[in-house]
Structure formats: structure tokens, C-alpha cells
Amino acid sequence: MALRFVRNDITKMAVDAVVLPANKLLEQGSGASRSIYMAAGEEQLEGELRLRYPDGCEMGKAVITDGYALPAKKIIHTVCPQWLDGENGEADFLYSAYMEALILAEKNKCGSIAFPLLSTGSYRYPRFDAIKIAVHAILDFLTDNYMDVYLVFFGKDAIRDGVKLFGDIETLIDDSYSSAELVNNRYSSRKLQGHFDQPDWYDLKKDFDKKLKEPNAKTESYDITDYKGESFKEMLNRLIQESGMTDPEVYKAANLYKQTFNKIKQKPGYIPKKKTILTIAVALQLSSRTTRELLMKAGYALTDCDSLDLIMRYCFDSRMLDFKDINQLLESYGLQDEVFPLKSDSDE
Asked: Hey, which of 11, 79, 132, 236 would disulfide with 39, CB 3.0 to 4.6 Å?
């Protein structure tokens, strides 16, 4: 299973199904809808819709038609919400639009599917929020299903937003796992078909990294010499104090038993396992830099040669510090054995 961002014209995607953002009447719209109608063949597509779905489709639901002149075999029409103020169930409807399209693709034995970024055109859904909902819905589906899913961005600005929020995971793993064996294992079931442009990962990453270095970019002020004399325990105690959380709040948020947490804080010379420190860092909502220093105090590091480290580094960098989200990402990359357990004292 895979989720990838690509920059392309969705009408050129050679997949089993492409998704058309639809209205309740299943009538032709603007943007991606218009492009798909024109490329598939308006007369044939409209004729099938009138014949098979004369009553249209409900918000957040989906229907399927033939792909006609498209490279894709099928078109899935999913009814998307218009952004009003965020208080009218827009997020739930948008999540449902993605999920219903995926479920319908699975029922029709589609092994690959391409989505445009739903609701962000004339429906004015905020792009960052729309990308988050899209990725969460897709990863929820991929937890229990196998399918190659492409989120297709038409412009550079949109895909850079996607890379900023989620795409660094794919980029980091692609950059670091360069051996032929690892690459073949990761892509054996999802090789590109040659009918559309391969995603511009490396150039995009360079552009994004360059943007972060611009004078007006927001960066974290950090000087490692400020606390270089601290021990691991001293730094941990300081970070807990600075967080304003009580000890019970910390070990509950980290899914640790009280006895484990007390041993970490009180037993002289005791250093917990790396993954336990990461659970505490997530519970404290630490920054990426602070997490790496805390790990360093314990003799650990987030390396470039381990997939768990790469994904955790991304999660801290992007402030995606919820165990459910982290576990979904780990599972989506085949790291089911690395998910964070409900209780971690068995690791100690």
C-alpha cells in the first residue's frame, strides 16, 4: 500500500480510477471536474450519469462510471462540501468524500486511484486543512486495505503545501534508502506505469529547504551550549517543569506505567530505551531540536539510516505529535512492529 504526492494533470494519470469532485446533481463543474469531463468525453459521461444516477448523489457519497477516453479505467464521482465557516460539518463531509471514493474503488477491484485535492477550488476549502483531511482519510483506509493512492497537485504552490505538511516522510525515506534491494522492496507493488510524470521530489525538497533558510522564515532559536552541562535526568526534569504538566499527566500522556516513569526519574544512572524517551517527548510536545538533545543526553540519536527515526524526525519537525497519527504513518510504511503501545513499561 502507498500514498504518494505527484504534480501532474489528473486527466493524464494511468490508474484504475480517477476521482472527480462532484456536486449533488452530478453535473459538470469547473476546475478538475471540467478537465475530467472534457478529457473523458462529455456526451458519453453525462449520458451514463443520467441513465444510472438520475437522482444524483448525497453529500460525502460517491458513484462510479466508465473512464471513456481517459487513461484511467474508471471515474469515481464524489460529492464534496463547499467551505462556509468550518462550523457546518465541512470536515466530516470532506473526510467522507475521500473515504467513500476509496471504498467504492475497492469494491470495484481498483488497485490504484488518483485524487485531486478535493474542495479547494471553487469550493474554497482552506488548502492546508484540506490536505490534512485528505491524508488522514487515505491513511485510515490504507490501515486495513491495499491500494496505490496518488494525491495529485496541479500547481507547485499546492504540492509545496503538501510536502510541508506530510511529504517529507516520503522524501526522507527516498533520500536515505538508496540501496537497490531496499528500493525494490518498497516499490515492487507500485511501480509507475510511464504514462505520467514521476513526482519532482528532489527539486521540491530543495526548494522547500531553501525557503526555510530565507531571512523571513520562522526558525527555532536554539543554542546547545545553554544546557550542555545537564545530565539526561536534569534535562528531563527541567522540561517537565517547563511544560507545566504534573508527573501523572506526563506518564499518562506517554502511556507509561507510574513505576516505569518513577524509575526513569529517580533511579541513579538509569537510562530508558530510546523509544520510551520518544514517548515522553511526544507527551511533552517537545520541538524537534529539543527532542534530539534529550536523546543525545541519553546516548541516542535520530539517524538517517532507520525508517522509524526518519518518520519520528518528520513528526517532530511538522508538529504532528499524536500517537494515533504517528502509528498510522508507521503502519502505512510497513512498520507495524514499531507502533507505540498503550503501555510501555514492558520495554524497560
From this structure: 11
